[in-house]
Amino acid sequence: MEPRTKNILIGTVTVLLAAALIAGAVYFNRPRVVAVVDSESVLAGITTDNLMAHLKELEAIAEANGGNRKAGTAGHAASVDYVEQQLKKAGYTTERQQFSYDSSGRKLVSFEMVGPSANSGSVEVGTDVDLMGAFHPDEVTADVTAVDLNLEGDRQTTSGCEASDFEGFPRGNIALVQRGTCRFDVKMSLAAEAGARAVIVMNQGDAADRRGIFVGDLSEIATVPVLAATFDLGAELAAGGRVALTVDSPGAVVTENLIADLPGLGGRTVVVGAHLDGVGGGPGINDNGSGVAAVLETALQLAAVDAQPTLGVRFAFWSGEEDGLYGSTHYVQQLSEAERRAIEVYLNVDMVGSPNPVARVYAGTGSDHPVWEVMRDHLRAQGVTTSTANFDLSDHKPFMEARIRVSGLYTGADEPSPNGAPGDPCYHQACDNVTNIDPEMLGLMADALAHGVLSVAS
Ligand code: DTR
Ligand code: ZN
Ligand code: ZN
User: Fold this and answer.
1) 3 state SS of 319
2) 268 Cα–ligand 2 center, Å
3) Smallest Cα–Cα separation from 395: which of 299, 326, 315?
4) With b meaning 16 or more CB within 10 Å and e meaning fewer, what string describes 226-265?
5) What is the pLDDT of residues 78-124, one digit of tens each?
6) Do residues 280 and 253 touch, judged by C-beta distance below 8 A?
7) What is the four-CA torsion angle of 402, 404, 409, 412, rounded to 10 degrees?
8) Has this prediction a pTM greater than 0.85?
9) Relative to the CA of 276, which of 61, 142, 178, 305 has its CA 20 to 30 Å away?
10) How far is the CA of 276 from the centre of ligand 1 (A)?
């Protein structure tokens, strides 16, 4: 942490690095010089500036690659390159562990305006229109019917929120509704009941930030394809048009986990992991650039003090988390039983810089490792109010299922914090950028992680 908070840094664990026991051992090709490290010197190296610098890089990577860092895309590949290059610069040897899975996700493959008035070629998937949800792959070619739109932007529209909006709707057409007033899944259900083959939700157009493409969350399964469109495209379609669209499964995703090891003296290891992939709808800075930054800085600062812990520390940057914990599941599955037993603890770091944070330590998982109390006590000693979290919603789940003990850190997603506002209002959205981070909380969580790692590994 930076000096501002460093002066309240107490609870230092003195870590005995047993280099003396392995006289003549070499690490990073030079003789070991540091025999004793206290966690304070490692924690002092973990600054909010360093953490935020990683997040800025990840955001720039997303920006240069279509706005996201989703598994199987160029944005994720560039993220792996970045983290790998940081680790290598610090002296680590890295390993890329390739795997593939079938994504159950859907993708808007094509969207075209057809027919006499078509302005073909001008509509771009991802920029003008994108998929919000679709259960099945689908192909729809149909006329578009506008449903109670307000193109003046002078009132809240109830477009598609009421069954009466669909009176006279020609069954088999595509419903064009406008964002606002009720949930997307209400508009979808009413449209589907009225016989719509697909639903296009155009942006509201009543404010500058309600004109472009948007990422909408459907809480219900999409029985028909539901698309999000810009206000301008909606206005064009409202004039009357015919659309041909194709929704398909992206199919096999080929991607990789990135792994780096700080060797220990014996065979036992602490595995520390964060998912490096994000969702398709945004740059994924709190989810999960924040966890990546915390794990990466821990690795870099341990290397900077030339630490050799008693237990090995394995740093893992998973892929495929957002599609179903695929990277961590693959990792656990390819371990032998002996390798699984040699893992002292798996520490998971997913979303630790939430802008409206609640500092949570995983406990009560049914597979707890006592290090959770060490991390909690460390946070408390910094004056942080903590609570525990018992979730299986992230990459620790496959470890728990293999009866490996776990803990981890978390500061909140879209569920409300005690003050009533969501922990992260930009969860899985385009606004999950560097401004969606509480840097101080991120620093505190990264410190707690490094402190927990040192306390177990030493
Ligand atoms: N599944 C995570 C976000 C998430 C939601 N709740 C928790 C609890 C503990 C860790 C992570 C999470 C994601 O979207 O990546
Ligand atoms: Zn996550
Ligand atoms: Zn997520």
Assistant:
1) coil
2) 27
3) 326
4) bbbbbbebbbbbbeebbbbbbbeebeebebbbbbbbbebb
5) 999 999 999 999 999 999 999 999 987 788 999 999 976 666 557 89
6) no
7) 20
8) no
9) 305
10) 13
